[in-house]
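User: Show me sequence and structure for the first protein, then do the same for the second.

Assistant: Starting with the first protein.
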Amino acid sequence: MPPAVLVENLKKSYGSVEAVKDVSFAIEPGEIFGLLGPNGAGKTTTIRCLCTLTTPDAGKLELMGVSVSNNPRTARQLLGYIAQEVAPDKVLTGRELLELQAAIYHLPKTQARERIDQMLTLLEITDIADRRTGSYSGGQLKRLDLAAGLLHQPAVLILDEPTVGLDIESRSAVWRFLRQLREQGTTILLTSHYLEEVDALAGRVAIIDRGKVISTGTPAALKAEVGGDRITLRIREFTGDDEAEHARSLLADLPVVQDVIINSAQGNSLNLVVDKGGEALPTVQAALKEADLPIFGIAQSQPSLDDVYLAATGRTLMDAEMAAVGKRDLKKERKASMK
């Protein structure tokens, strides 16, 4: 049996901007697979290519063994796509919107009614189905969008940031529903920059940074690869480069320390990989005190997917996210100044 989703050496540029430089991964049938990375990493471009909405420059794309490039119509019949932005016609009721979606998929009327009722029940929105969607909350709109994408019972469901902007209750409802779909055999590909979302839902994950896949595996395996517990500390609120390097060299020589990474995006904080956090913490504190180096802040933790990203790139996902936001704001300022 071929993979449910196959992406090999995908590349896509917009002018001089390489949105996707080289992305490859495969998803098995009935699996929830996560694409994790900051905004601007290439996640949305990757799935838009898979959904036939964007033409790739190079690469191989398949859904259930069907070439997306050579047979786009067949590929579209195999997938359901839920975009990040939800923009339904606010005049239609939820039920009317689903009826329109069923007509687009050419579902027989009897079958359409049955599936609409089924989706409304599963997503717990039957009580608002006959209200205009303009009165829906963000969480209700997201559930309606899920219902629309699942009416034709696709083999593969692709979701771009499925819970962005939702409150905790709505996010939990979406998570429960996605787990139900997986149990029923639906293959799910989701993009997210929420660490806890990917960790909770995905059986496997590919971490994307600047248009490339930097790590692939189960969340547990990826965290195990970076090894050890974590100690994060700041010498000062904003530590100078020389002092941070001095502290790094000092701590790297300690027997309990496996590795030290300087996170320049967070005021040159020091991220330590240690053998046993509880035993290593006093050793680290003592070494800094003996070297007459202060401690502005210190914390111990278990390895996370953010540590995987940090080990591979030298920055956290939040740092990358903030950098992407900064670039977008700078572009806006430049455009405004040219007017």
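Switching to the second protein now.
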Amino acid sequence: MNRSTQSAGNRASTVLARRLGGDLLRLRDAAGRTQQQAAESINATGTKIVKMERGWVPMRDPDIRVLCEFYGVEDPKSVARLLELAKLDRERRKAKGWWHHSPQAGSMAEYIAMEDVAVGVRTWQQAFVPGLLQTPEYARALAVSEGGWTDPDEIEGVVDVRVKRQARLEGSEPLHVYAVIGEAALRQQVGGPEVMRPQLLHILEQAQLPNVRIQVLPFRAGGHACMAGAFTIVSFAEAGAMDVVHVDTIAATVWIENEAESATYSSFFDRTARLSLAPRDSLRLIESISEDMQ
């Protein structure tokens, strides 16, 4: 578990690189090899292995292949998974997306960069509508309610970030979104009925996209596995492969990066989804709430 982007001097680690480095470290330990031995296998210094295992540097495919052979990794799928992680990390580091020029992206910049190269997200939200489904008016009302703003332009910057993220829902390779939303988030009148009703109608429209699946967890479902808080599972390959989890708390952004913990979040998400209404029934409830919104 880590805060967002971490740094050491002028070296920056990323979520994907830390994930890859951690995997290489576990493989080295399992093989009983030292950092110096690993370094010699790729004709490098021990310092390079330290940087690789801590996610401070992008990693080359030849180095990964040699290290896997040195550590006795014979499964082609395991090697391919590490190579894919390295490729995604290099792409993320090179990306010069719009978020780099948006101060309002703030702590979300790392998440947005991940979202930009992801193939899908599963998100559980119980207090507000997921960012990818928010209207500008809802995003603005939400930002205003958070307080602490001294410049109205900052609020518009936040709204602009939310809107730009939604471009990933369309295009030749759209992001697949599976959102489970607590009923309370749909009934909480952020910005009042004049903002909330169009927001609910927008969710109904977005749900028609083939890459968007929405379910509502109704009040009557009672207790459930995800009551502790909201989170988003980001996927970069087939379902269950290389998932990382983003948890945005009041005080910090946290990434869950190891397979055991991310699998736990996936299990929690699936259990809560099973308690939720089916997609068709969920949309009917959203429509009913919008009609009752006064």
